[in-house]
Design a protein that fits this description.
The protein is built from three helices and eight strands. The strands form two sheets. The chain has a four-stranded mixed β-sheet. The protein is an alpha/beta fold. A hairpin with a 7-residue loop joins strand 2 and strand 3. The protein folds into two domains: about 60 residues, 2,3-Dihydroxybiphenyl 1,2-Dioxygenase, domain 1, CATH 3.10.180; about 60 residues, Signal recognition particle alu RNA binding heterodimer, srp9/1 (2-Layer Sandwich), CATH 3.30.720.
């Protein structure tokens, strides 16, 4: 296996892409279709990539049970930032991102914080901190 890239079902791909670009500093890798309202996109920040697909086209081609709202229920995506969590926490706080669990060190020595995106998905950013135990 080379990569793992979560596919997140969303109501509005364009709005989601704009959020990830403007609030979380991701870049766009791919968006389509080329004409009309996009129904699919891939965004990237360093080595972290996420796919988004609009609810309706996805439900027509796949299992419609996966498109039921609220999105993000029972799902948490963990990401390890290349530059550490402290600076990323400050960056996202300054951008007024919905930080639902502030920066802290858990019982396993992981320094982490969690945000909720505009679709309800929870992203947790973490890194091992041997001096924090």
């Amino acid at each position: 296996m080379r990569d793992l890239m979560p596919l997140l079902i969303v109501n509005d791909v364009e709005e989601t892409v704009n959020y990830y670009i403007n609030k979380l500093n991701f870049g766009i890798v791919k968006k389509g279709p080329a004409e009309g309202k996009p129904s699919f996109a891939i965004v990237k920040r360093k080595n972290a990539r996420l796919m988004f697909e609009a609810k309706e086209p996805y439900a027509q081609r796949n299992c419609s049970a996966l498109t039921q709202e609220p999105f993000g229920t029972g799902m948490e995506i963990y990401m390890v930032p290349a530059d550490g969590v402290g600076g990323l926490h400050q960056e996202l706080h300054a951008l007024d991102v919905d930080i639902i669990k502030p920066l802290h060190t858990n019982e396993y020595g992981m320094q982490q914080f969690s945000i909720r995106d505009l679709n309800g998905y929870i992203l947790t950013f973490k890194q091992y901190c041997p001096t924090c135990e």
